[in-house]
Specification:
This protein is an alpha+beta fold. The chain is 18% helix and 32% strand. The chain has three helices and six strands; from the N terminus they run βββαβββαα. Strands 1, 2, 3, 4, 5 and 6 form a six-stranded mixed sheet that branches.
């Protein structure tokens, strides 16, 4: 049975999946339009959505590819608190590892994303990333 996350309109915390896509000793990161920092593929779990559904939906939305029969490995779970005046008290970030044989091009939603990179350890060390990306975890995988 899959876990379903609560009502995001009334929740004090949100859940977010973070997909660590790794290939050829590089990790895939994306940068939103007008943003200065990079993020992992993934975002909020929608109301009534099971985690596997979120993973498949976010992968398709953010890479333009369907995720077929990929083994998911749970890597890490963290809780990030938000300032008290925000819409939510915090977020639970759930990190999953997706291993690929080779890097691949992704299809960016042009009105949402501006850039993607497959980053080596050296590139990642100097790349500005979101607080929700957990650079330390990513560097430990490379």
């Amino acid at each position: 049975m899959s876990t379903i996350i609560g009502d995001t309109k009334n929740a004090s915390n949100r859940a977010s999946v973070k997909l660590v896509c790794i290939a050829n000793n590089k990790i895939l990161l994306i940068r939103g339009k007008g943003k200065e920092v990079f993020n992992l593929v993934g975002w909020w779990v929608d109301y009534g959505e099971a985690i596997p559904q979120t993973i498949a939906r976010e992968f398709l939305e953010e890479t333009g590819h369907v995720l077929w029969n990929k083994e998911l490995k749970l890597l890490h779970v963290e809780i990030k608190n938000f300032p008290k005046w925000g819409q939510f008290d915090g977020v639970v970030n759930i990190f999953y590892l997706l291993s690929f044989d080779n890097t691949f091009d992704i299809i960016l939603e042009e009105w949402v994303y501006e850039e993607y990179k497959w980053c080596s350890k050296e590139e990642l060390q100097n790349l500005p990333v979101s607080d929700h990306t957990n650079k330390e975890l990513l560097l430990s995988l490379l």
